[in-house]
Structures are given as structure tokens and as C-alpha cells.
Amino acid sequence: MSGRRVLITAGASGIGLGLAKRFAAEGDQLAICDADGDAIAQVKAGHPDFIAHHADVTDEAQMDAFLAQVEDVWGGVDVVCANAGIGGPAGRIEDLDYGAWRDCVGVNLFGAFLTCRWAARVMRAQKSGLIILTSSTAGLFGYPLRSPYAAAKWGIVGLTKTLAMELGGANVRVNCICPGAVEGDRMERVLANESAATGTPIEDLRAAYVDCTSLKSWVSVDDLADMALFLASPAASKVSGQILAVDGHTESIN
After folding, report:
1. Known catalytic residue: 238?
2. Is 136 a catalytic residue?
3. Which residue, 230, 213, 155, is CA-closest to 179?
4. pTM of whole model > 0.90?
5. Which of 13, 135, 136, 240 is catalytic?
6. Annotated catalytic residue within 147, 149, 209, 240
7. Minimal CA–CA distance to 67: which of 126, 125, 8?
8. Per the record, a Pfam family (predicted)?
9. Of residues 13, 135, 143, 153, which has the active-site annotation?
10. Is there a catalytic annotation at residue 149?
């Protein structure tokens, strides 16, 4: 086996799959999990060399089984991308359902905890490694009508800073990528939810997401992969505890 050992949660679609393909193109070994069993099956068919496991990041037993498999096969890990997340409900806080709030925070934040708890133990023992967490520009600003998502993504920022402090002495780096509006199916679902909550046409919301950035553009999965690959490269050997926005520079919240 050659190349880095890279683990990515929610790696069967969207940002996670984009990251996996780019790391694989660099010659790295990949292990992914995803709550979507059909998506995992498709990845297995197209990438039989991947470790691909059907697991919900909020289910401790499922994650333990996935992570134990990775540790058994690889004996360690070099890069862990705690990437799993969901958009959650849209609406005023007084109108939100507790279960929907809990589920949003659970996937975005508690899933990161289960992933990072394992990564910290393994990387501390081997005295090397990189953890990349996926937050959002919602983790840098307030986000009206998306309170559970913003709360969870701010939590990811705090987790990043804390783990960088806890693990730095073991030569383990921890950083956080904050995407802006990323092209793809997930953002289309976000737009639909926000449109339903506000009555604003989807096309108006789409334009607003572009207008609130300095570069007046959406972000691509490749933009995020470029940042992840940089963080995993020797050029970033002293980059840790950083919250790195890849968003075209958000000037205001739409």
C-alpha cells in the first residue's frame, strides 16, 4: 500500500465524494462512510479499492464498527475529514420542531465528535496526523431562520480550536474549512427549504447567495478539495487551529 490513508465521513456524495475522488487521484487510500446505503453501493462499484461502509455518523455502534474496520485494515490513519452534515430545518426558532433541531445538531456536531474521538486516539498514538472538520460560513456569522445549523457549525469551530490545542503536542494538526454556498443537490434542498419558510422565490434566494459575496460566485466542490489537499500537503505543515473560509468572501448574510 502506498499514499496517505484518508478517511472521509459522508463520503459517498456531494462534498465528501468530491474530496474522496481528489485524494484518490493523488494516489491516496480512501475509507468512507455514509448514511445512504445506495450511494455507498455505487461508490463500491466504481471504486472497489475504497473501504466503503454504510454508517450513520450519529450512531455510535455503527461508527465504532466502521472505524474498527479501518484501524484493522490500515493500522492507523493520516488524514481524517469529519465532513458529515445536514442543512436542517428553516424557520423562526419559535416555529421549529425539537426533533428536527436535535437531528441537525446531531449530524453536524455529534457526528464530528464520534469521528474525532477515534482520530485523536489513533493519531496521538502514532504522533502524527491531520484532522479537517467541515463547518460553514454559518459558523462565522449569525444565520437567520437557520438557527440549529448555525449553532452546530459554530460548535465545529470551537471543537477545531480545542482539538488543535489538545493534540498539537502529539504532532497532530486540526483545521476547519468553512464553505460558502456550494453548487450541488444539497444547496438546492437548502434553497427549497428557505423558500418554503420565507415565501421568497428560489431564484431570488439563489441570486442573493451570490450577491452577498465579494467574488459574486458560487463555490465548487473542487474549490474545497483544493483547500483540503493543501492542508494535507507539506506546505501546510505548520498550519493548525485555523478556520479557513472558502466562500468568495462573505460580505453579508442574505
Report:
1. no
2. yes
3. 213
4. yes
5. 136
6. 149
7. 8
8. adh_short_C2
9. 153
10. yes
Give the CA distances from residue 151 to residues 108, 178, 205, in Å, rounded to whole numbers and listed in that order: 10, 14, 22
Which grid coordinates are listed for 86?
A: 445536514
Domain ranges of the chain: 5-246
Q: How far apart are CA 79 and CA 63, in angstroms?
A: 17
Range 5-246: architecture per CATH: 3-Layer(aba) Sandwich (3.40)
pLDDT in tens, 154-171: 999 999 999 999 999 999
Relative orientation angle of helices 98-105 and 147-167, to the nearest 10 degrees? 30
Which tens digit of pLDDT belongs to each residue from 195-244? Answer: 887 888 888 888 888 888 899 988 999 999 999 999 999 999 999 999 99
Determine whether 39 is exposed, middle or buried from the number of CB atoms within 10 Å of its CB (0-12, 13-18, 19+): buried
Contacts of 26 (CB under 8 A, 6+ apart): 3, 4, 229
